[in-house]
């Protein structure tokens, strides 16, 4: 596991959060199990990685780059799973940014397709 491979006290300069999955099915045909997996990959995993790397990021004056999508804010046909989970991911980014900015650190979000 990547997190376990990070040496104790290591400085982290940049954490790029880019992984995402999504089922292209229409909303009425969504597979709930796949939706739950998408929540794990698109929302829970970035939170877990942020928490795991946070000590190294703070020590190294690091930054977090979240790669978002315009689909999180502008729904498109067939993107329900991806759009909903990426909207949650974006909100997670906003919350992190609000708390981190107060401490003098920065996060960045780049929305693809915008």
UniProtKB/TrEMBL annotation:
KW Ubl conjugation (keyword) present: no
GO molecular function: oxidoreductase activity
UniProt cross-references to CDD domains, sorted A to Z: SDR_c
InterPro entries membership: NAD(P)-bd_dom_sf, SDR_fam
Keywords: Oxidoreductase
Domain of life the protein comes from: Eukaryota
Family: Belongs to the short-chain dehydrogenases/reductases (SDR) family.
PANTHER family: OXIDOREDUCTASE, SHORT-CHAIN DEHYDROGENASE/REDUCTASE FAMILY (AFU_ORTHOLOGUE AFUA_5G02870), SHORT-CHAIN DEHYDROGENASE_REDUCTASE FAMILY PROTEIN
Protein's UniProt name: Protochlorophyllide reductase
